[in-house]
Amino acid sequence: MESPIKERTAIDIGKTVEKHACIVSEILPAHALTGCDTVACYYGIGKGTALKVLRAGSHSLSRLGVMDTPIESVLVQATAFMSACYGQSSCQSMSETRWKVWASKTGQASSAPPKLCCLPPTNESFAENVKRAHYQAIVWRSLEDNNPPHIDPELFGWTKDTKRKVLRPTSVPVTVELAPEYIMHLIKCGCKSDTPCSTRACSCTRDKLDCTLCCACNTKGCCQNVTPQFRYRTLWIAELTMR
User: Fold this and answer.
1) CB neighbours of residue 175 within 10 Å
2) Residue 230's pLDDT is what?
């Protein structure tokens, strides 16, 4: 392949493939897992980091994107791979990796506490992202098949929005609490008008969260917040799970 720009370095595709033959089969799964158009990326973990882990040869993604592979088996490989990307090779879960990364960053006296977005995701949110990566890798691996497999996206981290006719990524399963109840009560609004929480200016109403006794609207006793039963995570909670 020659560059259209004069004096720009030309890349020999054949030699590139030959040089990296040992990781060619896992480049697509690694690309899907570390972020693509349909899968969320991990803050601070780029493609260069993924390539270094692949080249090291100690962690594989051979199961990602292979049809009929149990998702539990895919999760084991993906957890080991992403933990290695965060510099934690001995962790058995992403929540453990998250804790160790936090501990290593807060243990440095000369540095400020880490931003939540810098931490790895929790087990629950990571599992949903791995499902989406697995789905995307299956699609890519099947591009040359005459009869590509029919797979239901709702089994791979997506939820159908029939009203808007779109697929929405699942952050965490509906059965999983976004945070302990005592933390949810720390999220509060400061509405003090005559009709508090009646507009999106209220942080609780905007993020579809119930107001609590900690909110300023309760001092007047006329809170106008009417939220649906299903609560979408707030931007603050999003940093606790996946970014």
Assistant:
1) 6
2) 35
